[in-house]
Amino acid sequence: MSSASKPSPMPLSGIAYNQVPQSENAIHGDDVAQRHGFRGGLVPGVTVSAYLLDPAVRAWGLPFLQRGRASVVVKKPLYDRDAFRTEVAELGDDAYDGRVVGPDDVLCAEGRVELPAEAPAPPSRRGDRRVDKDAERPLASREVFQRLRDQGMGSVAARWDAEHAMFQCFRDGAAMPPLLRPQGGGYANAAFLLGTTNRVLAANARMPAWLHVQTDSQFYAPVDLGTLLVVEAAVVDLFERKGHAFVDLEVAAFQRDDDLCVMGARLRAIYRLRGG
User: pTM value?
Assistant: First the structure.
């Protein structure tokens, strides 16, 4: 232990869990994923990211949910029921570099996780228009995202409860950090919170198959069971690399009842895969 008063983040081993094989994002299902050259449906990028943040939640507890930050890049897929390990290289008492390593020692994700003494000033809610969930969404393209960049994106709601697909990052709920289990606090996990960035992106443009590849996140408050969030976003960059089309969003999630910001994040996603 690097400090007498603060536990050190520890390595983690687990079995990967694809919570959404029937997702609208067909990359999580076997058929479409295999057509893009993957072995099968991909475990969500936000779930892989949560595995990298898991040691911070276990070691630092509630303070991490109140002011922790992380930058995670998803590099290779994990598949349902893959054995994985999260490696931790401490950088003093309040930070570590983490790696999620899958079968055959494949590096699936890497990033830095920190517990700053204070969180920066949180984003303020803009009051963006709500997305009409029954409206026809345009097919994602550079032109569509440029228009959203110029005119603004619609906001979405997300409720944290036991019915949500991301309620568990492991098939066995007992494998979750105690603070995130219903009997231990029931606070929202990183897969759900980071997943709100996916939700707002997909609500504004239709993407048959796409990849969540990076999130830089800052947490501001724990999210209690039953909390309804409002998620706002803005397009901040568009580019292509190696045949893939990327979009970057700035995202902020707020408690609907009092506009308290619970997370700010920057999402990088591939909205059109090479050859798609």
Answer: 0.96
